[in-house]
Specification:
The complex is a heterodimer.
Chain A (H helix, E strand, L loop, with lengths): L3 E14 L2 E14 L3 E5 L6 H8 L7 E6 L2 E2 L5 H11 E4 L11 H11 L6 H7 L15 H14 L4 E5 L7 H18 L2 E6 L10 E6 L2 E7 L12
Parallel strand pairs in A: 3-8, 3-9, 6-7, 7-8
Antiparallel strand pairs in A: 1-2, 1-4, 4-5, 9-10
Chain B lengths: L2 H12 L1 H38 L5 E8 L3 H5 L5 E7 L1 E7 L8 E7 L10 E5 L7 E5 H7 L6 E6 L2 E12 L20 E7 H8 L5 E8 L5 H11 L5 E6 L4 H42 L1 H10 L3 H40 L12 H22 L8 H5 L16 H4 L4 H12 L1 H39 L4 E10 L2 H8 L2 E16 L2 E10 L15 E4 H7 L6 E6 L7 E9 L6 E5 H8 L4 E9 L3 H4 L6 E6 H11 L1 H32 L1 H9 L4 H38 L12 H28 L2 H6 L4
Parallel strand pairs in B: 4-9, 6-8, 14-18, 15-17
Antiparallel strand pairs in B: 1-10, 1-11, 2-10, 3-4, 3-7, 5-8, 6-9, 7-8, 12-19, 12-20, 13-14, 13-16, 13-19, 15-18, 16-17
The chains are: A alpha/beta, B alpha+beta.
The complex binds adenosine-5'-triphosphate and magnesium ion.
């Protein structure tokens, strides 16, 4: 566990809102290692999503650098960022954001079609516990099922990093736990680095590393020697 | 199949209504384009084929007397490939009824077939012998002449009886007109007949000589050279006129008609197409806006901008291809119908509608390109979508106050529902502006249509009552002494009478020239609304425009009278004349320059007597035209314009209808959620429909108001485009025309709204509340 996959260096992001400058991120630095399961914890508005989006190549910082496997992604062009997202990153969103006109399987295929080194679809669907309902459309599935499809869609690309922005935010406790279990399994099986955003402190019990944020700053980074299994998390 | 393509197909399936609405707009645009364009092309093809297959002559020479040998002498000289000499005589038709005065043009033809200007036999046979006669179809129809009837002609002072053995059409007389001065064909009072050549030479008293020769060239490129050559070399035979194909009366008329249609086919469909393009762009931009989150997800997944743009362009292209295929097929089918209807007014005995696959392909390609271009424009917003932001719930539309709210005294008086309607309009300005634009185009097209409908009557009345005021125009067979006019006063109760000269000249200004009739009038004439000065010439504005001359310019008048001089004249005045193309001069000045002193070739008469009847047996009279004759001819002639107008009304209405319909349909789809919320609150379908109607009618009202000045612009433009030698369209717009246009516009709009009501009624509001996933 010594390979640094992602290195974030004194990252800042400012939004100009008329007269005032909103500092969404202020001098944030940390490192993510290969296969690490990281939880970013913080209250609403603390800059978690902003950080995640910059790491995922969806947004650019005002200052600072992000290195992916030693490559400076914050200096990349739009085109290069797209390729970075396409081949290296898997996103999971709070509201699943599946294509409503594609079935579960097709949603996964949509992503795997465009990347260079996809994982076998059935294998991925199996891993997320979805083999029976793959021909259903999103509107015919529950939120938990949809989120599994979304995870499968992200994993199938065989990314190096899985970025999840409040993946359990819209789900009840039971379902939330099952999603976290899927993420943990994917993390173990495919050796993906998983970064999960949450404002639920309980979830940090399963992380290898917990990054606590407040007002755009990292206030603490905690290494967890003994992460517990998701099903043992207590709310 | 790629998953994105699958998404596309399902997207189309789910949003059928919206998709069909857009396809409908493109179909309408392309179908109007193909229909109008193809009927112009078909007509041009037919006309060309007709002239080709008849081997229509290139140059027509008329002279006092041409010897037979000239026919052979000309061949091979100056690019001439063929020539045919003939006798052409204008003679009176002898009728049982006495009060009619009908002239026919007798043309000599070969026994079996002519090489140039072949006849197309409609009935009977082409082979002809002595005492047989072939009658031109229009004349036969108008006078109800049938095969084997007898026709009596007065040739060279003697009566001859002929047996009708054929009824035929000729490319030389698609329009049968006696001369340039007759504006309209009048087949009841002037016709063309064909008699065997040798026989006609015997009985004509021309010593076996001819008086016309028709020449065919190897190529038309050097037609001017050959024409000049003929003028010089045949001068010794007393050349009267050398007329090139383009100047030939009937050919020129046909050409102008087809050209008018071609001009329309180039301008009108473009308006429709442009509008269809704008609509498509707007609709696609709205679709992209609705798909914002999905586009963001695609970007997050690593799809490039290019891939996403191609995805949505495919949507646009399917519309382009489907719309192009349906539109061009309907348009092609309709164009065949339109062409055959047009041809009824042309007296062309053939219809060559060629089915060009390439034209359909071109229309589909055009449709595709239009949709791609409009599509690209519409979906350019994709580039601006930021994946990170798109994932967040869209910032609620700002509840900004609209401008009207600051005008308190109006705003406070409005009911709640009106306030809601106004807010909606101001929040979706673009959409409502498009509705207003569609309505204003519909309204302006209708204004133009009704104006064109009226203008024909207006132009006629203006010309024949205000501009030309004579009740009768009597033509002589030759030039007579001015005092001849006094003889009319002895046999008629004459209110006014003046001598006149009507004579064709070739008017030349630099490289431009045109053959027109110049009219010599008495000073202070009561018959024309023109004031001829002692010297100089007055030109109608279309002639001045054509020749590119201004007041004070000096122009050359080339005389067709044998042994008479050409001369330069100064342009004194340019007048507006709604029908015809002419020059006017003081008769004394005209005689002095170009003819002899104190002679006339006709008189204008105002009299309450039945002049036609009384003058029937008078010698030396070749034609008597009454005001009512002219009216009749004109009405027949305007049938073709009526068809154009009819189709324009339908097209304009269709466009307005389709746009308002599809816009409302889009609106319903987009606002399903809002409507559902209203339904849940207890609003009835009707109330929601009324809200939509209120929104649309405000914009329709604005559209109609804007449509009036737009219509005015269209009219000015059309007036310029459609002005020909025959008519000059410069009449003002009148209130009834505008009112009719508005009534029709409103009717089309109401129809569209009624259909959308059905749509709203059927919409499943609960379903749209439940399904809220991207
Ligand atoms: N596009 C933007 N324009 C202006 N300010 C923004 C924009 N995006 C984010 N911000 C601000 O930046 C700060 C951090 O936002 P961010 O979305 O990263 O918070 P978060 O930790 O993800 O919150 P939450 O838990 O609610 O998702 C907030 O104060 C937010 O208002
Ligand atoms: Mg967030």
């Amino acid at each position: 566990m010594s390979d640094i996959v992602l290195k974030v260096e004194s990252l800042s992001k400012n939004y100009q809102m008329g007269e005032v400058v909103v500092k969404a991120l202020e001098n944030v630095s940390f490192e993510a290692y290969k296969g690490e399961f990281i939880v970013i914890l913080g209250p609403s508005g603390s800059g978690k999503s902003t950080l995640l989006n910059i790491m995922g190549g969806m947004d650019t910082p005002s200052n600072g650098q992000v290195y992916f496997n030693g490559e400076l992604i914050t200096a990349m062009s739009d085109k290069e960022l797209t390729m970075y997202r396409r081949n290296k990153i898997g996103f999971v969103f709070q509201f699943y954001n599946l294509m409503s006109t594609l079935t579960a399987r097709e949603n996964v295929e949509l992503a795997s079609e465009i990347c260079s080194d996809p994982i076998d679809i059935d294998d991925v669907l199996n891993s997320v516990g979805l083999l029976e309902r793959t021909d259903h459309f999103p509107s015919q599935m529950s939120g938990g099922e949809q989120q599994r499809v979304a995870i499968a869609r992200a994993v199938a690309k065989n990314p190096e990093i899985l970025l999840c922005d409040e993946p359990t935010g819209a789900l009840d406790f039971e379902t939330g736990i099952s999603i976290l279990r899927v993420l943990k399994e994917v993390n173990k099986k495919y050796k993906d680095t998983v970064i999960v955003i949450t404002h639920n402190a309980a979830i940090s019990q399963m992380a290898d590393k917990v990054i606590k944020m407040r007002s755009g700053k990292i206030i603490e980074i905690i290494k967890n020697k003994n992460p517990i299994a998701p099903e043992r998390i207590e709310w | 199949m790629k998953k994105l393509d699958k998404r596309l197909l399902r997207m189309i399936k789910i949003t059928k209504g919206q998709y069909i609405a857009v396809v409908l707009i493109i179909v309408t645009g392309i179908f109007i384009f193909t229909a109008v364009k193809n009927s112009a092309l078909n007509l041009r093809d037919t006309v060309n084929d007709y002239y080709d297959s008849a081997n229509f002559g290139d140059i027509f020479v008329s002279a006092v007397s041409l010897p037979e040998k000239i026919e052979k002498e000309l061949i091979g000289v100056q690019n001439i490939s063929g020539s045919e000499a003939r006798l052409v005589l204008d003679v009176p038709l002898i009728l049982d009824k006495e009060n009619e005065n009908v002239n026919v043009r007798v043309v000599s033809i070969d026994k079996s077939e002519n090489k140039i200007n072949k006849l197309f036999i409609n009935e009977g046979k082409r082979n002809i012998s002595e005492k047989n006669i072939i009658v031109i179809k229009q004349f036969a129809d108008a006078r109800k002449i049938k095969l084997h009837d007898e026709i009596k002609l007065k040739i060279n002072g003697r009566q001859h009886t002929f047996n009708v053995t054929g009824i035929a059409s000729s490319p030389e007389y698609v329009y049968i007109m006696e001369n340039e001065q007759t504006l309209m064909p009048d087949p009841e009072n002037f016709g063309v007949v064909y008699v065997e050549e040798n026989y006609l030479r015997q009985i004509s008293g021309t010593n076996g000589n001819f008086n016309e020769i028709v020449v065919k060239l190897n190529s038309e490129n050097d037609i001017d050279k050959t024409s000049d050559f003929l003028k010089d070399n045949l001068d010794k035979y007393g050349i009267k006129r050398v007329v090139k194909k383009d100047e030939q009366l009937s050919f020129g008329m046909v050409d102008q008609e087809v050209e008018g249609l071609e001009k329309m086919s180039q301008s009108v469909p473009i308006i429709f197409l442009t509008f269809a393009g704008i609509m498509l762009a707007n609709m696609l931009s709205r679709i992209v806006k609705k798909d914002r989150t999905s586009i963001g997800v695609l970007k997050a997944l690593g799809f490039t901008n290019y891939e996403i743009i191609v995805h949505y362009l495919k949507y646009a292209s399917t519309i382009g291809i489907i719309g192009g295929i349906i539109g061009s097929l309907i348009g092609t089918a309709l164009s065949s119908m339109m062409t055959s209807v047009y041809l009824q007014y042309f007296n062309i005995p053939m219809l060559s509608i060629k089915f060009y696959f390439s034209r359909i392909l071109a229309a589909i390609l055009l449709s595709l390109l239009l949709c791609m271009a409009a599509g690209l424009f519409g979906i350019r917003g994709i580039l601006k979508i930021n994946p990170a932001e798109s994932m967040q719930a869209e910032a609620p539309k700002q509840g900004k106050r609209i401008f009207l709210e600051s005008i308190k005294f109006i705003w406070n008086k409005l009911s709640f529902s009106w306030k809601m309607v106004l807010r909606n309009i101001f929040r979706e300005k673009k959409k409502f502006l498009l509705i207003a634009a569609a309505v204003s185009i519909t309204c302006s097209m209708l204004i133009m249509t009704f104006w064109m409908n009226d203008i024909i009557d207006v132009m006629f009345n203006k010309h024949y009552t205000e501009f030309m005021k004579m009740q009768y125009n009597v033509g002589f067979t030759s030039f007579l002494d001015e005092n001849t006019k006094n003889e009319f006063s002895e046999i008629l109760n004459v209110n006014d009478i003046e001598g006149r000269v009507e004579l064709p000249f070739e008017i030349v200004n630099g490289s431009k020239s045109k053959i027109v009739t110049v009219i010599g009038l008495e000073k202070n004439t009561v018959f024309y609304d023109v004031n001829v000065a002692d010297e100089g010439i007055i030109l109608s504005s279309n002639l001045a425009d054509y020749l590119n001359v201004r007041i004070g310019d000096k122009i050359l008048l080339k005389n067709f009278m044998p042994d008479k001089d050409d001369g330069y004249v100064i342009v004194k005045e340019i007048i507006n004349q709604s029908l015809g193309i002419n020059g006017y001069m003081n008769i004394d000045y005209m005689n002095k320059l170009f003819l002899d002193k104190d002679i006339i070739n006709g008189v204008y008469i105002n009299s309450l007597d039945d002049v036609s009847k009384i003058l029937d047996n008078v010698d030396n009279i070749s034609s008597i035209q009454s005001q009512s004759d002219m009216k009749g001819m004109f009405e027949q002639f305007t049938g073709m314009i009526a068809i154009s107008i009819g189709s324009m009304i339908i097209f304009s209405g269709l466009l307005g209808f389709v746009i308002v319909y599809s816009m409302t349909l889009m609106s319903i789809n987009e606002r399903a959620l809002e409507f559902s919320a209203l339904r849940v609150m207890g609003f009835t379908t009707k109330e929601i429909f009324y809200m939509l109607i209120k929104e649309n009618s405000i914009m329709s009202f604005i559209g109609i108001v804007l449509g009036i000045p737009l219509g005015k612009i269209l009219i000015d433009y059309m007036g310029k485009m459609f002005s020909t030698d025959i008519y000059t369209m410069k009449e003002p717009l009148t209130a009834p025309e505008v009112i009719w246009a508005i009534i029709f516009t409103i009717a089309f709009l109401i129809l569209a709204q009624l259909i959308t009501y059905v749509k709203i009624y059927k919409l499943d509001f609960m379903q749209s509340l439940k399904s809220r996933i991207s």
